[in-house]
Write a structure and sequence with these properties.
Its main location: membrane. Its EC number is 2.7.8.31. This protein is of the alpha/beta class. The chain is built from 14 helices and 10 strands. Strands 2-1-3-4 form a 4-stranded parallel beta sheet, sandwiched between helices. A two-stranded antiparallel sheet has the order 5-6.
Amino acid sequence: MPYKPGRYYKLIKPLFLTMDLFIINATIFLFETNITNTYIFIGYISLMWIIVSLKNDFYEVQRNTRIVQIITLLVRQIILFALILYAFIGFFKQPNISRLALGSYVISVFVFITFFKFFSYFLLSKYRIYLKGNLRRVIVIGDNKKTKQLIDIFNTRHDFGYEFKKQFCLKNESFSLNQCFEYIKENGIDEIYSSVSELTNKQINELIDFADNNLRELKFIPDNKDIYSKKLKYEYYDYIPILILRDIPLSNTINKITKRTFDIIFSSAVIILLLSWLTPLIALLIKLESKGPVFFKQSRNGFNYKEFDCYKFRSMTPNKDAHKYQVKRGDHRITKVGKFIRKTSIDELPQFYNVLFGDMSVVGPRPHMVSHTDMYAKRIDKFMVRHFVKPGITGLAQISGFRGEVESDADIINRVKYDIFYIENWSLLLDLKIIVQTFLNAVKGEDKAY
């Protein structure tokens, strides 16, 4: 008898789509929008929701999808939907539509859709845990550290809904792929997980052919080789597959515009609401304690290694070594006012002008002095990857404990690792998380803020 996967799992996504369409259509009747033809509006928003959902992969939420990824999908979906919704006014010539009511409608849709999205996500998780439904039977081929970690996840994360059945060890002399194939067919295995490093090319091809011909999902576990630890991406040049070793989200035009728009809005708000009155106060304190300029300007390397002038409130007495040596704990060059503004990170606030001018971003890898950049580029592997994006006032490395003075190579190596992770996994939600954590760290105070 031919293998049939779970009877109802393919109905889950259409069911969720149907429920969402019901929500967006039913909610419109809660508001006095003054729409001329409600039926045209319902057809328009339904069609547009489906198109946006397909483009946004809104329903591609898997059992192992993280909460932060769902939130990102929701925010992106509702922003695109809102833009398309307001385009209805001009496209269908509806001047009498209430913009306020339409805005209230969008917010309500966002709240209802978010509630349903998370309710269904957690309901399915509980269904898998307690009722043992929606399970996927899996086997693992290979015996190494990665396969053991994966098996442990299968056995402990019951909310994922994986039922681990058996592990096949290729090092065992009695092992054969044919035995493995027979077990898969006899036990109705849904998914096959196999270590790449333990298979020959011939075995990989046999495994792929079997999975294709028997409607099984085949997934490979990367070994510990460096190339497999990267976030790989395929592109096709005609019919030739090209493997890209680093996918940078901010290379995407939409992501780039989104981040730049956020930078302009956020930096403008800080400059108007905070720096407008704080700058004269800090300037007065700096001038009262020591002679010299209020602002400190230093050349640093930014996007594509281009040099720019980075601004800070002056926190040290004027000295010729300011552009050569990093500040150290107990540095005699730091003034009393400087100690306070460095501890609270107030000295960094003028960099919001750098953000507004386009040299920096609110969040990104912290820029280094030109002399230090040249030094680390020679000593630290992949240090230059940080310059694929604009530098930031704060960053993932800084909130993870790697800010301030570089006391050893381990500090800069870890900083680079966090920076590369940020570059390869950027999202607006991640930026917001880093900003909030930066503010909390500034309030609490940090050991390396000196």
